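Each record in this resource describes a single protein on a pair of labelled lines. The shape at a given residue is found from the number at the same position. The record below illustrates this layout:

***
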Amino acid sequence: MGFGVTSLKYMRLFYEAWSVLAEKSSIAVDDLQISDNERIIIRQPQLPNLAGSTVNEFFLVPFTYHILILQRVKDQEERLFYIRQTAILHLSKEALLKAIKADEYHHIGALPNNFVTTITDAKSARRAIRAFKDEYLLDFINVEELDADDIEDVDERVLEKEIVDNIRDFILKFGQDFLFIKNQYAVEVNGHTFKIDLLFYNRELGSLVAVELKRGPFKTAYLGQLNSYITVLDDFVRKPHENPSIGLILCKSADKAIVEYFIKDYKKPMGVATYRTREDMPEKLRNALPDIEDLKKLL
């Protein structure tokens, strides 16, 4: 059975993209000049310039996914990133497209944080950096409710409710290995109650992760508040076999330079990320998404 024109174009696209990684082999035109009775030897592809685990992930990704990545991403390292994400997270085509549109390559590992100085094990610190993004696209948030004229803490509770109501979507955007424990997680300390907006556990890091939601822009006072929450988690909630807790402030906007300047003086591992809602997306992309009321009617 022969290949169609489109299939041949895709094969050429794949070859031209990755031939630079392949060894210069002795496979030549002579290999194609065989009689109908001769046995065709199928050679295992080799990509010597990739690490072993990356090679395995490379071949776990279906050909159609490779083509999707090649058509939408031009940088080689960025292509390998999405290939690895697809293999590790078992992304569907829809999820892969969303990851590319959200530009996750440039957001994962870009979180302003103090992990290197507060997490003693260098390998664990690198894992923590990779576990978070500097920006999250929360396109399920109901902006009309968030923009209501109300006090800031009520707005934050609305934001929290939207996330909890859509916790599955949030975890998918939040990252790999996160388990949701509870919202408004209360810890009693000497007659005082500390409530953490969202509490997660990350299996790879072996750490509790406290997330504080902020409706507006980043304020330096948020770091002190989060530092206190991490302290009570470590002292009253963390189990002996678990690693120190990590904190994340999730706010509407932040000056990374300011965050990095002030966060370095804190002894607890924490970072500051921002979020975008559906209204913050480009109009062309936003218009391509179904209206929330239409979705509700369908459901």
About this structure: The chain has two domains: 5-101, 108-285. The longest strand covers residues 178-189.
